[in-house]
Amino acid sequence: xxxxxxxxxxxxxxxxxxxxxxxxxxxxxxxxxxxxxxxxxxxxxxxxxxxxxxxxxxxxxxxxxxxxxxxxxxxxxxxxxxxxxxxxxxxxxxxxxxxxxxxxxxxxxxxxxxxxxxxxxxxxxxx
Length: 127
What we know:
This protein is of the alpha+beta class. Helices cover 21% and strands 41% of the residues.
């Protein structure tokens, strides 16, 4: 019984990791659309909602672009199979990215929120 409890605890604790801007963890395209309004939401309001951006860029025309990223991945079942896990590992999950472009008045000109599947494989599972 003790071995089963330890194994279950290892599965739970080793299972997942989140990296990036934590404010995006619970966001979706729908929730972001209620918080950001093109032509109305200011740079200060975006910063208050989502914190500092992961990355800042500028267009050729001088407009500022803020990028927010968050990824959450979990170890795949193959990582917990004895012997097999010695030859490689894999993890999969979701990546969220919010891109916000501001006009010259520091108001949101355009924005985009996307959620995509991500996976990482190492060793023999690299295919």
